[in-house]
Amino acid sequence: SVSAAFWEHLQCLGLQDFPCGLGSWNKSRFDAHRSRCRGQLGLGADPARQEETMLLEEESPEALMELLRDQHSPWALPPDCSPQDQRLREMAVLAPELIRGSNIFRVFRSLRIIDKRVEEVDEGLLRFHQLEELILSANQISRITSANLPQTLKVLELCCNAVADLQDLCAHPPPELQHLGLGYNRLCGPAQDKYLTAAFWPNLVSLDLSFNNFTDLLGLVSQLSSLQKLRILVLQGNPLALIPTYRGFLVDSLPKLSILDDIHIGPDERHQFHGLARQPELIRSEARVVVSIGKIKGVPDPSTCQQLEVGSEAPVITYSYCVTYEF
């Protein structure tokens, strides 16, 4: 589940271990802070003695931070870790109380769990009350229950999973979602087209449906046209992208789009395709593939066979060949 992957990742970060967390290497600093909050000085009444104790027995915050940031340090994070991981560890040095117990859920506004073999989006996500970005790419998710998603989400990225049905996701989707990434999944049209409307995603600005199995261009466009805030759309890699008038029809049908398939839509292109949306008869739901064979090895050339003389009684040998192409 997402929750299990989250806790496993936190253990790898060592947020409660040196040089992070709370321990003998910084204990008096936080004891002093708590004492001041209670109106006491802590470590007796002598500030000089308090500072001397910290210098002799403990590490300064600056020294602890250097252990985290120096790439040659044994406590440095691996290069493939995210900036968020580094911020968490630095927070564990400067304010360890913020990442203890349930407090840690208040810290996250972005959560990235990539390639962790996650299969389930569980209700544990609801503990992240301020989560705005959820990245779950390259996992094994086939079903998403919207009831388990924080309603504060603005970005949901599910690229490279096994999602084949949007019904559960669209039961109670996050109302403020601005980006939905569903590229490289198993979505098929037209059964899923009906879930891509403003009734489910009223604030959607960016939508990635690349490399799925959408085939009905007219049907999909009729649903997407209700997304009044949509500015970025990615459909490349779907069968419908093979239709000759694919780009022109989309550009003219969705006049508010700014970027289609990672290519900016300029005024000249809009003018070029103006009026194409009113000519759906030009859209043919088929594609032609032309295969040119340059050379086949191992098959005798029939033209080199000598012609038999008229009246010859020599046996005639014929050959048949079957060549199969798999796409």
From TrEMBL:
<keyword id="KW-0433">Leucine-rich repeat</keyword>
<dbReference type="InterPro" id="IPR001611">
    <property type="entry name" value="Leu-rich_rpt"/>
</dbReference>
<dbReference type="GO" id="GO:0005737">
    <property type="term" value="C:cytoplasm"/>
</dbReference>
<dbReference type="Pfam" id="PF00560">
    <property type="entry name" value="LRR_1"/>
</dbReference>
<dbReference type="InterPro" id="IPR032675">
    <property type="entry name" value="LRR_dom_sf"/>
</dbReference>
<keyword id="KW-0677">Repeat</keyword>
<protein>
    <submittedName>
        <fullName>LRC43 protein</fullName>
    </submittedName>
</protein>
